[in-house]
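fold-stage: in
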Amino acid sequence: MSQYLARIRFPDGHTLLGLYDARADSLLPSLVRPIPEITGRWEHCHAEPPTCRERYERAHHAQHGCAPAERMARLWRSAMALAAGGHGLLEEALDWQTQTEPVEVEVPACRARWRSHADRRRLALVGALEPVRH
C-alpha cells in the first residue's frame, strides 16, 4: 500500500484529513473533515479494510460531491472568475494567503510529519510539505 490518510492539525487542535501518496511523496490538496462512520479509525486504515483511499474518496464525495481533482479545478475556476470579475487576481491571492494557517501534517502509518499551511474554510492544503526539524 502506498496511500495513507494524513491528519492535518491546526494550532487550535482542529483536524482535517487528506490522502498522502508515499510513492509520489505528496498530499492531495483537497481536505475532508473526519466522518466517523466513513473514515472510522483512520490511523489504522492501512491495516483494516476499506483502504485509506476508499475512505478518503467516500468522505470527499460525501462532503464535496465530487472527486478531489474536480474540486480543486472548481476552486481554481472560481478564483479566476472572481479575478476576471473585477475582484483582481492579486486581491484573490491575498485573500487565500490571509485565510491560511500553519498546520502539522502527520501520517502515523509512515511515522512521517511535516509542516505546511492550510485553509480550513476552503478545506484545502495550500503549502508545500516541509520536514519537521528538531
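fold-stage: in (second)
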Amino acid sequence: MSGRHAVIIPGGSYGPLAGLLAYVGETAARRGAHLELISWTPPPGRPLDERLPWVLGQVTTAVEAFLDTVVWR
C-alpha cells in the first residue's frame, strides 16, 4: 500500500462521492492514495447548526479508526 491516504468527509446533504468530492476522491485515487470514505445519515429534525457536535463525533471516530490501521514509520 502506498504511503498516501485520504479521508473524504461528506457534506450535510450528500455523500462522500457526490459533487466536488467525487473529483477529490478520484484525484487522490489516481495518485495512489488509499481512500477512507465516511458516510452517515444525520439525525432528522435538527437544524444544520445543531448537528455540529454529532458531525464532530462521526468524523473523530472515523479518523481515529483509520489512523489505527496506518503503519507509522
